[in-house]
């Protein structure tokens, strides 16, 4: 029966690879998800065939509980809360890996495992518990910051980075010691405690602007923990799936950091993203004036042009304005206006956040343009419509060497003939800095909830 299990594991691994490959473009993403789902079903089926399983009772009970939680999360959590849901999923994955490690270690120490606890197995168990525990509490902290339970600003204290590095170094030394002396049970549980404390302390100082990178990095940690679980359990599909998850999460983190022109070290230790949208800094604090426009003015500007580029941001997600934006695009296109969407890689709270929301609203894939594709088109656009975006359209990233976001690739919305900014208030974005775009002579601001504003624009257009 184990031969059939290994065959199913091989099929699952191939499907996982094809699934990730499918996610490289919007057109094949749905197919990639289906491949991955079939692969997971094959992996679970292979596990059920394993001869080490003596009863299915608790497996089925646990699977039923987990499925009920997963279905409830998918059904009740709106698309605008996908970053929070993903953070919770990472927390569950890290906890699962850590608990498997604790369970396996306890079985070895109680003499209930028929094999000897080798140093290699101890190293794998320790690694999965270390990164699983860190991922669990770190992901919960990320969820809390995204949801607003915890202030999204960076929370710092003296010698914070030094103490965190020292704690991580101590955890690694404990892991090395356990590999040499596997029977030192107090060290094992101390390492688990230190790992969970590290997850909290390492995410606390990271501001809301960096949550996309944090989420993808925690995803990488969860994959590494799962891969280590595979080595400890001698389970090939866990090794492969965990390695895929860890590697893809790390690569995604690199891509996100580059999109902000920042390094991992700067994300983890740089205390960027200090603002939470309620800071004292105000747009226009330099004394420059902003021009306010009415809904009627915005509708006239949008309909009188031939090309409009929509720049969505986190504000669109908060207002749940994606369906109203799609309706507006339909009305404009009926009048002969070309509408495209400029997607910045770090707009929102997770990689692809804007793509997910707009796809939910049935915006055509070919209308969604990445930064590199769309940036040269802003100079030919009649209107750049900024829907809840802030730092990703700030020209200071291109022109002001003293700005903390200088060098970060941004959308060239300032080059459009007219910029219409939909914004709730004069508060700054997560970077906590003034946005020069909002005081430029070709920019007008329409204040209010983005969804309400666009629905009023749609009434005027209709």
Q: Could you characterize the architecture of this molecule?
A:
By secondary structure, this protein is α/β, with parallel strands linked by helices. Helices cover 59% and strands 7% of the residues. The chain contains 17 helices and 6 strands. It has helices at 2-22, 26-48, 57-76, 82-109, 119-147, 160-180, 185-203, 211-233, 236-259, 264-269, 295-304, 314-319, 322-334, 353-360, 371-374, 396-399, 450-461; strands spanning 307-312, 338-343, 368-370, 383-387, 418-423, 443-447. The chain has a 6-stranded parallel sheet. Helix 16 (396-399) links the parallel strand 4 and strand 5 (418-423). The longest helix is centred in the N-terminal third of the chain and has 29 residues, at 119-147. It starts with a helix and ends with a helix. The relative contact order is 0.10. The model is unreliable at 271-285 (pLDDT under 50).
Q: How would you sum up this structure in a few lines?
A:
The protein is of the alpha/beta class and 462 residues long. The chain is 59% helix and 7% strand. The chain has 17 helices and six strands.
């Amino acid at each position: 029966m184990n031969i059939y299990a290994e065959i199913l594991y091989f099929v699952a691994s191939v499907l996982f690879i094809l699934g990730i490959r499918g996610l490289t473009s919007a057109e094949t993403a749905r197919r990639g998800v289906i491949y991955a789902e079939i692969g997971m079903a094959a992996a679970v089926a292979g596990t059920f065939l394993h001869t080490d399983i003596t009863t299915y009772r608790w497996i089925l009970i646990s699977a039923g509980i987990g499925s009920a939680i997963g279905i409830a999360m998918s059904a009740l959590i709106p698309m605008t809360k996908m970053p929070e849901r993903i953070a919770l999923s990472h927390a569950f994955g890290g906890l699962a890996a850590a608990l498997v490690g604790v369970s396996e270690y306890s079985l070895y120490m109680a003499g209930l495992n028929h094999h000897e606890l080798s140093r290699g197995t101890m190293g794998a168990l320790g690694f999965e518990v270390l990164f699983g525990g860190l991922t669990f509490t770190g992901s919960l902290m990320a969820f809390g910051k995204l949801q607003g339970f915890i202030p999204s600003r960076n929370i710092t204290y003296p010698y914070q980075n030094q103490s965190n590095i020292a704690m991580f170094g101590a955890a690694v030394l404990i892991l090395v010691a356990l590999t040499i002396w596997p029977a030192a049970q107090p060290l094992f549980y101390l390492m688990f405690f230190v790992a969970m404390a590290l997850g909290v302390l390492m995410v606390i100082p990271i501001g809301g602007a960096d949550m996309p990178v944090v989420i993808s990095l925690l995803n990488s940690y969860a994959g590494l923990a799962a891969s280590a679980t595979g080595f400890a359990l001698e389970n090939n599909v866990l090794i492969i799936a965990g390695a895929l998850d860890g590697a893809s999460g790390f690569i995604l983190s690199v891509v996100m950091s580059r999109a902000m022109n920042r390094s991992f070290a700067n994300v983890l230790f740089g205390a960027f993203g200090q603002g939470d949208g309620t800071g004292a800094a105000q747009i226009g604090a330099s004394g420059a004036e902003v021009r306010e426009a009415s809904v009627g003015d915005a509708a006239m500007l949008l309909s009188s042009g031939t090309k409009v580029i929509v720049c969505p941001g986190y504000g669109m997600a908060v207002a749940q304005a994606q369906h109203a934006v799609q309706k507006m695009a339909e009305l404009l296109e009926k009048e002969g206006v070309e509408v495209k969407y400029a997607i910045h890689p770090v707009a929102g709270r997770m990689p692809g956040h804007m793509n997910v929301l707009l796809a939910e609203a049935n915006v055509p894939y070919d209308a969604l343009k990445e930064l590199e594709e769309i940036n040269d088109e802003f100079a030919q656009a009649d209107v750049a419509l900024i829907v809840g975006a802030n730092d990703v359209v700030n020209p200071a990233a291109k022109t002001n060497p003293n700005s903390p976001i200088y060098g970060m690739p941004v959308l060239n919305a300032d080059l459009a003939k007219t910029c219409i900014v939909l914004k709730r208030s004069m508060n700054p974005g997560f970077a906590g800095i003034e946005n020069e775009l909002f005081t430029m002579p070709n920019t007008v601001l329409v204040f209010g909830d983005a969804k309400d504003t666009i629905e009023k624009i749609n009434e005027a257009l209709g």
